[in-house]
Amino acid sequence: MFAEAIASLLQDRCTPQAVRAIEQGGSPAALSAALEESGFHELLAPEDAGGGGASWPDFHRVIELCGAHALPLPLAQTMAARAVVRAQPLPNGWITFAPWLVREADGSLRAGQVPFGRTASHVVGMAGDVALLLPVADARMEANGVYGSLAASLRWEPDAGTALDVTLPAARLQGLAAAIHASLLSGAMKKVFDLAMGYANERAQFGKPIGKFQAIQHQLSVMAEHVAAAAIAAEAAYHTEDQGLPAYAACAVAKARTSEAAQLVASTAHAVHGAIGVTEEYDLQLYTRRLHEWRMADGSETYWHRALGALCVQRSDALFVDLAREVFA
Amino acid sequence: MAELLDRLQRAELPAAAQAFRAEVKDFIAREMPPLGADVRARSWMGFDAAFSRKLAARGWVGVTLPKAYGGAELDAFRRFVLVEELLAVGAPVAAHWIADRQSGPLINKFGSEAQKQSYLPRICRAEVFFCIGMSEPNSGSDLASIGTRAVRTERGWVLNGRKIWTTNADKCDYSIALVRTSGLPADRQAGLSQFIVDLRLPGVTVRPIVDLSGDAHFSEMFFDDVLLAGDALIGQEGQGWQQVNAELAFERSGPERLYSSVVLVDAWIRWMRRNGQIEQHAETLGRLLAHLATLRQMSIAVTAKLAAGESPLVEAALVKELGTTYEQEIPSIVEAALGASPGQPADPELLRAAAYLSHMAPTFSLRGGTREILRGMIARGLGLR
Ligand SMILES: Cc1cc2nc3c(=O)[nH]c(=O)nc-3n(C[C@H](O)[C@H](O)[C@H](O)COP(=O)(O)OP(=O)(O)OC[C@H]3O[C@@H](n4cnc5c(N)ncnc54)[C@H](O)[C@@H]3O)c2cc1C
């Protein structure tokens, strides 16, 4: 039900033209207002508090659609922030996460490659295990210069921001942030897969649709396997629970598996599309550029494989199959 | 999105299946023979009739078959748990494996009452073992082209032809053979039927084939004017192709398509701990863990479809292709790790396990349908064919 509502809204408002315009520095105000009016910010808040009362699996389905539409705003992070920070009101506007804040020698705070740093108004960050609310307006912003990217590195003065009243180890927010990108990746990969399938059925060479060639079929079959694996891993994370949030190890698997698939899915989609796929005017690039950015966001598979490896190292008693089972238990 | 991917829905093992796991673990702890990693690596290729009988005594052979025929009547989920636990430790299950997974369910689904009464209780007691007679020297991937033929005569069916790659035929009592009962190989799927062939009948010759690991786990079967009783036909004449396809969904979706090499991971971890190398390979271990946890979810999704009485052939093909790729990566990674420090003494048991799996790994994506064939099936499932 939440998914249907957001699907039609995104279909109407988050068009490829709108995404392009915002990426090129246009104002997101119209899209932003439409989403705010719809009340999606409060999706995860309990119904008796005026929220949507959505579960984490509902949330996942909604974010997958944000990924599939290349939504240029941190809707997922904003919804999740409101679920994590319950004790005090958060400001209106768009909130994104920076769970790996670094305190520099001079006391200033640095957050590298903050997803949606260019369109968010606030950041919920973790400096060690201290949660902070940081206005983006107070930060020095360094855009990364990557064409169309909405991520940015942010730096705040030592006294910036306010402490948030949440007790949360940094790892928990890191896991949640990663799981969000896993869902975004899953949604974007499904979209990319659909585009590749559609193109393979339509584009003809040597007198038949290229999808009739076995070599292309096999590429698409392998792509389907990885999209399916990524989708089930991302979804499974939200069916685990540890103190009200998806469990850390499950988030780790979700992000690792989706990040790894993202590279294969993006490159295969481009291979199937031939030259047209890399053009600005064709929509595929809106999603594959994100696959690369989101693969790295909140930890690439390298980071999360290491985190999972550390869990293996700690558990000298368990069979490997038991470890694999417990991740999603 | 592509309808195929929508059909692969996340599912959960029901609570009863979860609870069942403790029973299985307990049984394994008591009854599993002490075996080296290299023997455990053989697992569902490792034939140990005595172990199969112990499982049968516990009620765990023919686990999904009805109680009326001696089965345990467990659902597909509990079978998943049983299979998973046995493979996780590399239990030698080959003897009863095929009967439990394919032949028993096939007889139960398509067999006559007399056939069920005759075979199913013996399967459940691990008294008789089955093998799968599909492939022929000239019919591998193109299974519909088979030429082995059974002709109806006044005395019964007369069988002539040859099967190959039949896993454990030399140690089995019966083979369920896919043969032609009408038409020509050019008629493809039409005219194929399945027979239960007693491998002790006159005219049957079974010749084991030694593989590159020195094992002889598969065989050739020759049929020379083998006289089959009328009741050897299973299911309906001419329906062999449909029957075989229902069987293949069981063959392709299970944990054995993820866990062929998993014993090696445990052995490798133990070795790395002893050598203080585990931190160095933590990232690789984490990746293997992420993949396995995900593949398990996919395999459970297919199991849920089987439990619902569906025949999810394409979904099973998708999981099998990804799963066997994973199974093949493990020995490749371990081999590289073992050779990373030249001059270092090796642990012979680990080396043998890694060697066995490296040698056999190419078969993981052959047996049960090759990678290319499965990708073709997925492409068809996606609507590209
Ligand atoms: C360990 C093991 C156990 C087995 N156990 C059994 C058993 O118990 N019972 C049984 O009946 N069979 C068994 N088999 C046989 C197995 O099912 C076959 O090996 C398999 O179906 C492939 O057939 P083939 O070996 O004749 O190869 P071929 O069919 O000759 O294929 C050779 C290569 O060509 C490729 N190829 C073929 N056709 C196409 C195509 N149309 N498009 C693209 N590529 C193609 C294949 O993918 C493969 O790479 C077993 C095999 C192995 C390895």
Please outline the helices and strands.
The complex is a heterodimer of chains A (329) and B (385).
Chain A: H1 2-13, H2 16-23, H3 29-38, H4 56-68, H5 75-84, E1 95-98, E2 102-103, E3 109-114, E4 122-127, E5 130-135, E6 140-143, E7 152-156, E8 162-163, H6 170-202, E9 204-205, E10 208-209, H7 214-237, H8 248-273, H9 284-296, H10 301-314, H11 320-327
Parallel strand pairs in A: 1-4
Antiparallel strand pairs in A: 2-3, 3-7, 4-5, 5-8, 6-7, 9-10
Helix pairs in contact in A: 1-4, 4-6, 6-7, 6-8, 6-9, 7-8, 8-9, 8-10
Chain B: H1 3-7, H2 15-31, H3 37-40, H4 49-57, H5 76-88, H6 94-110, H7 113-124, E1 130-133, E2 149-152, E3 157-167, E4 174-180, E5 192-198, E6 204-209, E7 218-228, E8 233-234, H8 240-253, H9 262-275, H10 282-307, H11 313-338, H12 348-364, H13 371-381
Parallel strand pairs in B: 1-4
Antiparallel strand pairs in B: 2-3, 3-7, 4-5, 5-8, 6-7
Helix pairs in contact in B: 2-5, 6-7, 6-8, 8-11, 9-11, 9-12, 10-11, 11-12, 11-13
Bound molecules: flavin-adenine dinucleotide.
Residues 131-135, 140-141, 165-167, 218, 363, 366-367, 369-370, 372-373 of chain B line the site of flavin-adenine dinucleotide.
Secondary-structure element sequence of chain A? Answer: HHHHHEEEEEEEEHEEHHHHH
Total discrete domains of chain A: 2
Order of strands, main sheet of chain B, comes to 1-4-5-8
Form type of chain B = globular
Backbone structural class of chain A? alpha+beta
Q: Which value, in Å, is the CA radius of gyration of chain A? A: 20 Å
Cofactor (chain A): FAD
Organism (chain A): Ramlibacter agri
Family (chain A): Belongs to the acyl-CoA dehydrogenase family.
Protein name (chain A): Acyl-CoA dehydrogenase
